[in-house]
Amino acid sequence: MDSFIEIQRQTQEEIERFDKALYTILSRPSTSHEVVLQNEHKAAQVLDRISARAATMDALYDQDDAKKAELEALSGNDLSPFYARLVKIQEHYNKYPDSLPGGGFDLELAYFLDEPGQEEEDFEEEDPVALLFSGEESYGRYLDLYTNHTTYSNLKGIGKRPAYLQYLDLLNAAQQQPVHSDLPKEVRFTKDYETYIKDLHSYLLSFTKRSQPLYDVEAEQRRAEEDFQTKWDANELPGWEDVIEKKDQEGIPGIWCAACQKLYSKQTVYDAHLTSKKHIKASQKQAASGAPPPNPNGNGESHVPQTNHQSPARTRIRTSAYYTHLSTSLLQNLASVLAETKSNVERRFSLTAREREQELQEKANPPPPPVNAEGNEEEEEEERIYNPLKLPLGWDGKPIPYWLYKLHGLGVEYKCEICSDHVYMGRKNFDRHFQESRHAFGMRALGLPNTKHFHEITRIEDALALAEKLKQEGRNEIFENETMEELEDDEGNVYNRKTYEDLKKQGLI
């Protein structure tokens, strides 16, 4: 259909129908994190189509000549153009009787209006949003920074390599200051740091686009880029002021070798390289090309002029500062996700191998959705439990009697500082938690054994004081038994470390 006015009408209709579809998608109830993210991705795709069609409409309105010519043709008494177009339409549908009007727009719109999770019985379609995330990211809930942590740990000059939780704390510090501003300048000016910060920025940008499809991260990055350029030119970028001033005002001192096309920072290094095979070969090549050969005695050396052009070293440093600034902006936006990631890592550390395996199996095989959702909702409304006191539920799914609630003291709160200020309701639950994984993980974090001596101890200060008192009383065996290491000799006899070392000193092993 080549009618200019019809194209305008159809495009405007599609924009209006997409607007209604967008409202329908965003007004759906938020039943789960997966459904919310699926709706957001569909809404983002609808917005992209609206933007594309709005650009098409803008271009059509600029074509005044074509519109004027068609209006003149329709306003005359000659109806031959109208009948000519009618014949073309009839021939098209006679040749393609199954073709859809509007180029299949209704099918495209139906894809966005389908409810998430609705699938045919005989055909199960893979969730395209789930394929965007790795298993560690858990459908956009957490960050997967293990690769970046490995690269950061391999940087030279960072000192002690941090654990993964410590690395997350370093990234979380970007809420108050630029990320990795605590690193020495010798590390931040290297090529390895430039590669690392580029990869970190690339991952954070990709994760933000995948987990927050309705967030205009590109506009935020453009604002961060403008802010970086302003601060860089004004020499106000935190952590990079000295290098900007030094590179801009003092230039790059050193000795330049014209044959090797390389800058040497010291005279001794320059003199040592004059006898190398690489320098001799480069000098011969330069002489064969007709350029004046360098003086082997050092008279031919040339210092780099102090100009304002950007050297490779300055370009690399500026690139590192640029991606550091943009990564800081992304980390500030992902502050809540970063905190959830740290909590999830701590939780997984406290699980046993069997519990982790069971969790993976539950993720791989989620429970099937209810068959009769409407019927179940009606039954739930009919069997709605009256529980104004918010009593705990018993084995039958009903609130326990109030006298039993008072008997067990379930209304009394017990807070444990070792368990990160977790509150336990009732004395029974409080006594039981001392042998659970949460309390054991907190004791391991303090470097203390979770023995009966520390029962009823809930404050960190009291636990550390008790441990010191036990050591002073000569009861170190409590700690030694918890961290006892057994060693085996060549004959298969097993000893603890202390006994093994004593026998080895005596030559009995």
Automatic annotation (TrEMBL):
Any matching Pfam family: SF3A3
Polar residues bias (residue ranges): 304-313
Protein location: Nucleus
Domain of life: Eukaryota
Cellular component annotations (GO), alphabetically ordered: spliceosomal complex
Main localization of the protein described in the UniProt heading: nucleus
Keywords noted in UniProt: Nucleus
Every U1-type domain range: 252-286
GO biological process terms on file: mRNA splicing, via spliceosome
Any GO molecular function: RNA binding
Name recorded for this polypeptide: RNA splicing factor PRP9
Lineage start: Eukaryota, Fungi, Dikarya, Basidiomycota, Agaricomycotina
